[in-house]
Amino acid sequence: MRVTFFSYSFGCRVNEAEKIALDEKLFELGFIWNEKNPDFYIINSCSVTGKAEREVRQHIYQIRKKFPKATIIVTGCAATHWLRNNVSVSGVNHLIENKNKTEIPFIIQSFSPLSEYHIISHMRNNVVKKSMTEYPDQKSTVLDKSVLKHQFVKSDKFLNSGRLMVKIQDGCDRFCSYCIVPYLRGKPKSLKIKDIVQTINNYHLSSRAPKGRGDLYYKDCFVPQSGTRNDNGLSEVILTSINTACFGKDTGETLIQLIDAILKKTTIPKISFGSIHPWSITDEFLRYYQSIMPTNRFVPFFHIPIQSGSNTILKLMNRGYTKEEILKKLHRIKEINPKTFIGTDIIVGFPGETKKEFQETYEFLKSAPINKIHVFRFSLRPGTAAEKLIEVYGEPTPKEKRERSKLILELNKTISKRFSASLSK
Q: Tens digits of per-residue pLDDT, 222-255?
């Protein structure tokens, strides 16, 4: 009997990177990927908004209906939130907190039929040997790890195009007034640079992986790429984190040192960030960005979550910068490379946002050198400082939030077309 699994990730790029790491560990332990009828269905959940949590619940309901016999395991921020607040979630077999996420492969092994098998991973020989009590075709088999790796690569849209997602940091200490993430992911924790470099250098895609394609897409934006891959089959590493500004706080290292080490100690053709946060974009960082432009290895893509273009709202959000400060940084990025793609996140309907504050945000977005806007309607997260802000300032109505969101989305269409036109010049 083959023990199978399938995994699904909601939310940010960090969740996706965690899913990739989890999938690979399960493959190494001998589990088989199965989309059609998995024994275990693992969900890496999101809780950044109420809508995100609802989507996770809906997915659980659909999966339980589709795979009634599957063991459903939910981890991630929503699972952590539900566990800490004793929230009952129908259809789930196991909820696992963020802090225990990396133990999931071994937890699954402990209560799965696979525990009846003798599984030994010989990583040095790149072979997984399995002596099984039951098997449809044979009683004993030796599976080359490359077969499992090919299966793994096929399952992931990023790896399938030669892009490796690596989580470099977790946790946050900013405590923005709307955000529940610091409560669910804890204090900042960074990987050491030498370990990140080792992860990139040691990662080998299967020889069966598709050859590099040329043009790729980032956050729905077309960015021309060379399509080249290094000897390990990789074309790009995407560095993900909860807050890039927290990278190295606990290890005494910096984001610039990390990029520099990857450029000098790996052969990865391209380096990019899933998101880079406003506090990371210092004058020193901008000078460094300009200095590495000639390498043509740093992808000119910056997703910077600004959240508002109103100083009043930015202060209520506890963001720690003004619109003038961030606008200066955005213009400097474009001066360094006019074809840099800049995306952002904007929250509409935050407590205290009147027509005046929304108009300030709208005008900021019209004038800023931003090429893509992701808009979110404010959603109160229990336990955050925004609860008190609602008591003091009130909150825009659902209708007002919808209307403001629509206006930003229409503006986004205009600026996206403008950027596309500029590339063709």
A: 333 455 777 777 889 999 999 999 999 999 999 9
The residue with tokens 């002596």 is 131
Token pair recorded at residue 99:
């802090």
Residues ≥6 apart with Cβ < 8 Å to 288: 256, 259, 260
Distance of alpha carbon 140 from the chain centroid:
39
317: exposed, middle or buried (C-beta count within 10 Å: 0-12, 13-18, 19+)? buried
- pTM across the whole model: 0.83
pLDDT tens string 368-394 = 999 999 999 999 999 999 999 999 999
Torsion of CA 332, 335, 338, 342, to 10 degrees: 0
What region, left, alpha or beta, does residue 75 occupy, with left being phi > 0 and alpha being psi -120 to 50 degrees? beta
- Residue linked to tokens 């499992």: 148
- As a whole number of angstroms, the distance between CA 182 and CA 191 comes to 18
Q: Which residues pair with 131 in a beta bridge?
A: 118, 140
> Which tokens in the block code for residue 234?
């990789």
C-alpha–C-alpha distance, residues 228 and 214, integer Å: 8
Burial 151-180 (b: 16+ CB within 10 A, else e): bbbebbebbebbbbbbbbbbbbebebbbbb
172 CB contacts (<8 Å, ≥6 apart)?
A: 179, 181, 182, 185, 188, 242, 243, 246
